[in-house]
Write a structure and sequence with these properties.
The structure holds 2 protein chains of 2 kinds. By secondary structure, chain A is α/β, with parallel strands linked by helices. Chain A folds into 2 domains: about 210 residues, 3-Layer(aba) Sandwich (Rossmann fold), CATH 3.40.50; about 60 residues, Alpha-Beta Plaits. Helices cover about 35% and strands about 30% of the residues of chain A. Chain A has 11 helices and 13 strands. A 6-stranded mixed beta sheet of chain A has the order 5-6-7-3-8-9, with helices on both faces. In chain A, helix 3 packs parallel to helix 5. The longest helix of chain A is centred in the middle third of the chain and has 16 residues. Chain A is elongated. Chain B starts with a helix and ends in a 6-residue tail after the last helix. The radius of gyration of chain B is 25 Å and the shape is globular. Chain B is mostly helical. Chain B folds into 2 domains: about 260 residues, no CATH class; about 240 residues, no CATH class. Classes of the chains: A alpha/beta, B mainly alpha. Chains A and B meet through helix 2 and helix 3 of A and helix 13 and helix 18 of B.
């Protein structure tokens, strides 16, 4: 069994369905032991990428390497070393959840019954119910238990928590951390930003089949803006003179001539911005680091300003 | 009741094609039967032979109480012989429609969406029943038109407008009654499949009660009256019409609807009256391969098809005892001879038609079995297997293996059933053996159909209904090809044509080898294609 430092390596991947280019030169890398977030809205190409990695569909161009092998030609051997949780889990209606779990884990190899029982307990899943009676969340738990029951090198998770409640999400978070602690790598596709911020070491953002940004969360944050809300007594018009300040909104003048300003500013100009604010008779200052949401909106939302004004 | 009308329009819009196909397919039975029997039995004397033929207990199972046997007009035939098929067909249609618009909607959660709107509690059930009613009226109207168009002009057919309307309204009400049965079963269980299964079981029970009752006495015994399926025929249309049995059906519909409405008011949305059973917490040790999974998913349907086809084969076999009557009939009747063969080969002719029927039914099983592969892929249920260490060829091989095992089992049951039935009817051991072997000889032809379905699935991921097309074509060509003198190449398009006839005293293995080779080539193409193509979901 060969280990590799980059379990997933994708370069310039292209996949077309008819006239639609679902993947249009997409690249991303997952390094060993890291949790790589894969972020994008519905239809951006996340599931298509994962289906190429799993050898379910064949790429039209570019290259994809999975655990050092070819995901299409070596599919069966590679799949022994990974586990997959789809976003939309469909199970056999007549089989119980326990039967589905056993079938899926046995196909991969020997099973540790203790681990299975432990996962069932943590996810609070009743394995004796027929799959047709499970809710979406419970079907997802079946897939999660089956995937986490074995020590695999790589976990590929396609929006795995979309049906889970917050309590179960935290169980899921623990399980992913345990997996990385024993050296597994994780590819986590999601459109839930909080989940990616909490779990991921690196993030790749996909838009219309292309990777538009990738790096560690810190890297990405550095490139972006923090938000500021401040109560000042001076004329906030001075702030417009600073070109690092964006999306400035000013409240009507309140008691004692205090106005509330809110804006975002480039992170590499923090010094200048704070200096300007203190020159305006600063009463109160709240700043927030850039959230993934903001990065996301900057890549997707063509009207970031508009939506933020609405939120006040 | 608020919103009922909107739901009715929505339901009819969803099912306009479905209802149209059911209506056409079911009511075509009438003109086909009337015209065919008029051609085969042109004179009153011929028709009396037919009356004797269908008076046997075995025939009574599939026909009815036998009114008008003393003067067996085309009208009496219509009521006695074709009506049972059409009634069963529209009962199945009504059950499927009723469940489709109630429990199936509820199970998928769509009802929740609808009921959250401005929609009354009973709107869904009422609108489902309206859809069922419309479908039955469509069948009744079309049947009325087709019966009158094909039969009213024939001298001595006894087919009048009033009798026809009585028959078709009796049929439609029977269909609605079983739609109402399905509305009741839909309240009982949480699952659509179980709900339609229960209603189908009720239909099956009604059929058995009617058949058992009608066998005991001509014109039906007391037992017959306990089956709603008997009531339409008990109106004696085309013989000595009486309307009052219609009231029985009407009363049953009203009672069942009241029961369904009471039950539905006592339960929560999405819940059934019976709590669902639990399954196993852990899988049996054997469930560890794609084959084991596919077998587990299909074994119940293999048993059901096997039992159904086996029983039918057994019953058909007992028909062999009426061969002497047929011999009489075929002598001097060219049309009947074209269908059943020459007089001296009458038993062989009967056998080859029966074997063709059974072969086609086994083919229907095989098509539905192999089509599961596509359903597994499309629904995404196969995805976790492909994402695990399961090679595509292994998975497809497992699907094919389960279809093969199931097909062989069902075919063997059919062969043994037919042979046993004929032995009971008194044929010699050698004939029974020929019949069994002749049935088994259909295996390569079934394999060709399976191969065609699988090849299209493997290459493009669709089957385009090719299996069902081949099946229907095989039926038409096999039964009517000789009558219409279809050219050789057109007959060859049906894989069933190449199966050696049971009457052939010196059959050669050549055609079977060719069929096997074609099947093997198609299956090979399927595997090659399936290794290369993208897998799809949804």
């Amino acid at each position: 069994m060969s280990t590799t430092d980059t379990p997933v390596e994708i370069h310039d991947l292209v996949k077309t369905f008819g006239t639609v280019r679902a993947l249009d030169g997409f690249s991303m890398t997952v390094r060993r032991g890291e949790v790589a977030g894969f972020l994008g809205p519905n239809g951006a190409g996340k599931s298509t990428t994962i289906r190429v990695l799993l050898g379910l569909i064949k790429a039209d161009g570019g290259s994809a390497r999975l655990l050092g092998g070819d995901p299409w030609a070596d599919a069966v051997d590679l799949h022994r070393r990974l586990a997959y949780v789809p976003g939309d889990v469909n199970l056999w209606p007549n089989l119980s959840g326990g039967e589905a779990i056993d079938l899926l884990t046995r196909l991969r190899g020997p099973v540790d019954p203790g681990r299975r029982a432990d996962l069932l307990e943590r996810f609070e899943l009743d394995p004796s119910k027929k799959a047709r009676t499970y809710s979406k969340g419970n079907r997802q738990k079946v897939a999660l238990v089956a995937a986490l029951a074995a020590d695999t090198e790589l976990l590929i998770l396609d929006e795995p928590t979309s049906g889970l409640d917050p309590l179960m999400e935290s169980v899921f978070t623990d399980c992913v951390r345990e997996a990385t602690d024993r050296g597994a790598s994780v590819l986590l596709s999601s459109h839930i930003l909080g989940e990616v911020e909490k779990l991921c070491d690196t993030v790749t953002i996909i838009r219309a089949g292309k990777d538009v940004q990738s790096g560690t969360l810190d890297d990405l944050r550095h490139l972006t803006r923090s938000t500021y809300t401040a109560d000042v007594t001076g004329d906030p018009g001075d702030l417009t003179a600073i070109d690092a300040v964006h999306d400035l909104t000013v409240s009507p003048v309140g008691d004692g001539g205090v106005v509330t300003v809110s804006f975002s500013a480039d992170n590499d100009r923090t010094d200048e911005v704070v200096a300007a604010l203190s020159g305006l008779g600063l009463r109160r200052l709240v700043t927030a680091p850039p959230s993934l949401e903001e990065m996301f909106l900057r890549h997707y939302g063509d009207d970031v300003t508009g939506s933020r004004t609405v939120q006040g | 009741m608020t919103g009922t009308w909107t739901l009715v329009r929505h339901g009819l819009r969803r099912d306009r094609l479905r209802i149209a196909i059911w209506a056409v397919a079911a009511s075509l039975m009438f003109p086909y039967g009337i015209l065919a029997l008029d051609a085969i039995y042109p004179t009153a004397a011929d028709r009396q032979v037919r009356a004797d033929l269908v008076s046997t207990p075995a025939a009574t199972i599939m026909t009815g109480p036998g009114y008008g046997m003393e003067d067996y007009t085309l009208g009496a035939m219509t009521a006695n012989e074709f009506t049972p098929f059409v009634v069963v067909a529209i009962c199945i249609m009504s059950i499927l429609l009723a469940v489709r618009h109630t429990r199936a909607e509820e199970e998928t959660g769509r009802t929740e969406l609808v009921r959250a709107g401005v929609v009354g509690r009973s709107a869904q059930g009422v609108s489902a029943f309206v859809v069922v009613t419309v479908a039955n009226l469509a069948v009744a109207t079309l049947s009325t038109v087709l019966i009158l168009a094909s039969g009213a002009g024939i001298d001595g057919s006894a087919i009048t407008v009033v009798d026809t309307l009585a028959l078709t309204s009796g049929m439609a009400l029977t269909g609605m009654a079983f739609g109402a049965v399905a509305l009741v079963t839909a309240q009982v269980t949480e699952h659509a499949r179980t709900a339609s299964g229960l209603a189908m079981a009720a239909l099956g029970a009604a059929f058995v009660v009617r058949a058992a009752g009608d066998i005991q006495e001509t014109h039906g015994s007391t037992l017959s009256w306990f089956s709603p399926l008997a009531w339409a025929q008990q109106m004696r249309p085309f013989v000595d019409l009486r309307w009052w049995p219609l009231a029985l059906t009407l009363a049953l519909v009203v009672v069942l609807l009241a029961v369904a409405s009471t039950l539905s008011a006592r339960r929560d949305l999405g819940a059934g009256l019976v709590a669902p059973r639990s399954g196993r917490a852990t899988a049996r040790p054997g469930l560890r391969s794609p084959f084991a999974l596919a077998w587990r998913l299909q074994r119940a349907s293999v048993v059901a098809w096997g039992a159904g086809i086996g029983l039918l084969a057994l019953l058909s076999g007992t028909f062999a005892s009426s061969m002497d009557d047929m011999l009489e009939m075929v002598e001097g009747n060219e049309a009947a001879a074209a269908i059943f063969g020459d007089a001296d080969q009458i038993l062989d002719g009967f056998n080859s038609v029966m074997i063709l029927y059974l072969g086609l039914m086994v083919t229907a099983f095989a098509i539905s079995s192999i089509s599961r592969a596509r359903a597994e892929e499309q629904s995404g249920r196969a995805e976790p297997l492909f994402a695990g260490p399961v090679a595509r060829t292994r998975w497809l091989g497992a699907q094919l293996a389960v279809t093969a095992v199931g097909t062989v089992l069902v075919l063997v049951v059919a062969a043994v059933g037919l042979a046993a039935g004929e032995l009971v009817a008194g044929v010699g051991n050698d004939v029974a053996l020929d019949v069994a072997v002749g049935t088994l000889a259909y295996l390569p032809a079934v394999a060709v159909v399976v191969g065609a379905v699988l090849a299209l699935y493997g290459l493009v991921g669709r089957d385009l209904g090719v299996g069902w097309l081949l099946l229907v074509y095989g039926f038409v060509a096999g039964l009517f090809g000789p009558l219409f003198e279809l050219p050789e190449w057109a007959m060859r398009l049906s894989p069933f044509y190449s199966v050696p006839d049971v009457a052939d005293t010196d059959p050669t293995a050549g055609p079977l080898i060719i069929l096997t080779a074609v099947a093997a080539a198609l299956i090979l193409a399927a595997f090659v294609g399936f290794r290369r193509r993208d897998l799809t979901t949804g």
